[in-house]
Amino acid sequence: MTDFKADFHCHTHISDGTLSPEALIDLAAEQQITHLAITDHDTTLGYELAQPFAEKRGINLISGTEISCQWQGHTIHVVGLDVDVENQKLQSGLKINRIKRWLRAFEMDIKAQKRFPSLLTSILPKLESGMIGRNHFAQALIEKGIVPDQQKAFDRFLKQGRSLYVPVNWPDITEVVDWIVSAGGIAVIAHPHIYKMSANKLNKMIETFKDAGGEAIEVVNQPRVCSEQIGMAERAKRFNLYASLGSDFHKPEHTWRGLGWLSQMPEGVDPVWNHFKQTV
Predict the structure, then answer these.
(1) Strand 35-37 and strand 60-62: pairing?
(2) Section 129-154 average pLDDT
(3) N or C end of the chain: which has fewer CB within 10 A?
(4) What domain range is 153 assigned to?
(5) Burial 7-27 (b: 16+ CB within 10 A, else e)
(6) Which residues lie closer than 8 Å to 29 by C-beta, 6 or more apart?
(7) Number of domains in the chain
(8) Rounded to an integer, what distance in angstroms lies between the CA atom of residue 223 and that of residue 174?
(9) Looking at residue 279, what is its pLDDT?
């Protein structure tokens, strides 16, 4: 398929991106993307809102979401692709995760008020849905002139061990995979190269994921071939998993992470799009 160009991991302002679903579709069309999955955190609303506009722009939109979970103390993100967005088990699970996010947000704001005015009062008027995350707090810190950029916000306040950090008891990875499988979707380990664990531990996590019904792993996340991509392609083959690709796009300002800015899928892997319900 010579004109095929895909990105199966990106975000809108429904979660922690900056573009509306319609604006994201416009950008995808501009980048000549033919197949796209909007994978907002713990919600399918971004996909649902974008679907009618995607049809008008001639883009094949795949239903998706990115779900937070845990495995042996590590926070892991699992993308659900080609899911039935009306599935009650999936939607109930996503709602529980969003509630966990709000509980964390209130605790974070209480901590923040010991040092500066409430951050939530700045965040709430700009929220586009029921999803709230640490990136929203980072943006509020930037707007108040407390930090110059998002990285500094996390380094000084938001990451584990810092003053505003609040842990979340996310569901186990096996539970999240079950939500996706129950919704007829394909569970994908998102950006596996970023988790701070040894190679052996990563392999054990993949084994747990696959035993639970997980079927795919993100192999391509960058515009150039790199050691992480080669390693994940080998794992896809070793564990008999489909290979996915996605930029994890959030905002145009992230010039190192452009929508659809991805290298070709390595040879010898089984692309995830070969297993969608509708032929790609």
Answers:
(1) parallel
(2) 93
(3) N
(4) 102-158
(5) bbbbbbbbbbbbbbbbbbbeb
(6) 57, 58, 59
(7) 1
(8) 31
(9) 82
Q: Is the pLDDT of residue 109 over 70?
A: yes
Confidence grade of residue 3 (pLDDT, cut at 50, 70, 90):
confident
Cβ distance 53 to 25 under 8 Å?
Answer: yes
What are the φ/ψ torsions at residue 195 (nearest 5 degrees)? -75, 135
pLDDT of 245-274, one tens digit each? 999 999 998 888 899 999 999 999 999 999
Q: Which H or E run includes 186?
A: strand 186-189
Helix (H) or strand (E) holding 139: helix 134-143
CATH assignment at residue 118: 1.10.150.650
Question: What confidence tens digit (pLDDT) does each residue in 162-205 have?
Answer: 999 999 999 999 999 999 999 999 999 999 999 989 999 999 99
Please report whether residue 132 resides in a domain. yes
**How much is the mean pLDDT over the chain?**
95
As a dihedral over the C-alpha atoms of residue 262, residue 267, residue 273, residue 278, rounded to 10 degrees, the angle is 130
Q: Token pair 């190269």 is at which residue?
A: 193
Q: Which residues contact 153 (CB under 8 A, 6 or more apart)?
A: 137, 138, 141, 142, 146, 147
Residue 16, classed as helix, strand or coil, is coil
What is the phi-psi region of residue 82: left when phi exceeds 0, alpha when psi lies from -120 to 50, beta otherwise? left
